[in-house]
């Protein structure tokens, strides 16, 4: 039995259950999401290279104008603090015109890549100081973990893929490379620029393919890491719905308070119908509140006894009618008017009660 109990405890602690929505939301708030950094890098590089292909000539003209101005105009200026400051300012402005669009495209591409993977998320949890992150034992475990091996193989795949792509493009253009000595400087620079952009776009596309595969793996690994044990699911449900012991105590207290309120209404009843010991139904007829008699208290066994005691203490008439008491108890709740089927019987009871009260007066 002890071994069986240990096996059950181990089974309950084994993380075999899919993460609940609350677990996923809590993990997301901590920054634990399925994300591939390679997708961000690939989309960023692809956007930059596409931008260079589309606007590279314009940026090249801007750079050429900087050098032309430097070697034709500024070279003749006298070296003074004012002239140096002016030249540096002009060159900086022109350099910003070249660099700023590229940086803007890279930032937008990075934001879009992250949004496509995880949506809108801002959290500072990953930046919090954690001693486990600097624990050397944990560091060694991470170095020799399965995830580290996967990352190493992925890096080797990226390097080899990029090398193959670049070598293939250079091999296809080997004849033109051999003839560069016959071209002018401008044509040679233009050829190298086009070749570089071509290798960049091709390598980026290869990285994007690898990144998609990596994203699938990251999702699998994330789902595996946030799995829950059966005990975790039970604990979460208990926290969300409340401790059953506390809930039962609250319900018991609510019932007790309801009974106290109900007992406080019994002295105002017109009649208490009993069965004669197991059921007690207190009825009242008030034309201003309802068109028919309504139930102000009811109960069985102990509660029925308390209703009878309160009724006797306040001189409320008690009528024993087994069939009527049981029928009213099963058909009407506290505060509800009695069903139409019992109108005749209750009317006869109330008439008898009113007759007794009139005779007593």
TrEMBL record:
What InterPro entries would the database entry show?
Answer: FlhB (IPR006136), T3SS_substrate_exporter (IPR006135), T3SS_substrate_exporter_C (IPR029025)
* Topology in membrane: Multi-pass membrane protein
Database matches in Gene3D superfamilies: 6.10.250.2080, secretion proteins EscU
Main localization of the protein?
Answer: membrane
The transmembrane residues are: 39-59, 98-123, 152-172, 192-217
Instruction: Tell me the keywords, alphabetical order.
Output: Bacterial flagellum biogenesis, Bacterial flagellum protein export, Cell membrane, Cell projection, Cilium, Flagellum, Membrane, Protein transport, Transmembrane, Transmembrane helix, Transport
Q: Which Pfam families does this chain map to? A: Bac_export_2
Q: Where in the cell is it found?
A: Cell membrane
What does it do? Answer: Required for formation of the rod structure in the basal body of the flagellar apparatus. Together with FliI and FliH, may constitute the export apparatus of flagellin.
Question: NCBIfam families, from UniProt?
Answer: flhB
The record's annotation in PANTHER family points to: FLAGELLAR BIOSYNTHETIC PROTEIN FLHB
Q: Which family does it belong to?
A: Belongs to the type III secretion exporter family.
**What name goes with this protein?**
Flagellar biosynthetic protein FlhB
Q: Which organism is it from?
A: Alkalibacillus flavidus
Q: Quote the gene name from the UniProt entry.
A: flhB
């Amino acid at each position: 039995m002890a071994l069986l109990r240990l096996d059950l405890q181990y089974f309950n602690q084994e993380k075999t259950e899919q993460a609940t929505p609350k677990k996923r939301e809590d993990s997301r708030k901590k920054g634990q999401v399925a994300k591939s950094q390679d997708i961000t890098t690939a989309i960023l590089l692809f956007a930059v290279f596409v931008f260079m292909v589309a606007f590279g000539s314009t940026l090249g003209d801007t750079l050429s104008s900087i050098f032309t101005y430097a070697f034709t105009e500024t070279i003749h200026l006298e070296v003074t603090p004012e002239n140096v400051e002016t030249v540096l300012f002009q060159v900086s402005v022109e350099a910003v015109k070249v660099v700023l669009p590229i940086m803007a495209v890279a930032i937008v591409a990075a934001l879009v890549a992250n949004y496509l993977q995880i949506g809108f998320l801002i959290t500072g949890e990953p930046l919090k100081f954690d001693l486990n992150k600097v624990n050397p034992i944990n560091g060694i475990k991470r170095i020799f973990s399965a995830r580290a091996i996967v990352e190493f193989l992925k890096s080797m795949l990226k390097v080899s893929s990029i090398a193959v792509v670049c070598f293939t493009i250079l091999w296809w253009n080997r004849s033109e490379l051999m003839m560069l000595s016959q071209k002018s400087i401008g044509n040679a620079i233009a050829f190298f620029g086009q070749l570089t952009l071509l290798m960049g776009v091709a390598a980026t596309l290869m990285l994007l393919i690898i990144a998609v595969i990596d994203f699938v793996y990251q999702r699998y690994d994330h789902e595996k890491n946030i799995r829950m044990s059966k005990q975790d699911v039970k604990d979460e449900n208990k926290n969300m719905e409340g401790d059953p012991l506390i809930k039962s105590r609250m319900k018991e207290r609510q019932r007790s308070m309801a009974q106290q309120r109900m007992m406080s209404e019994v002295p105002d009843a017109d009649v208490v119908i009993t069965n004669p010991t197991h059921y007690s139904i207190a009825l009242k007829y008030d034309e201003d509140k309802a068109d028919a008699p309504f139930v102000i208290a009811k109960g069985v066994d102990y509660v029925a006894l308390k209703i009878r005691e309160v009724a006797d203490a306040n001189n409320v008439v008690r009528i024993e009618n087994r069939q009527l008491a049981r029928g009213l108890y099963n058909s009407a709740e506290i505060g509800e008017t009695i069903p139409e089927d019992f109108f005749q019987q209750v009317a006869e009871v109330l008439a008898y009660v009113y007759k007794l009260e009139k005779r007593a007066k």
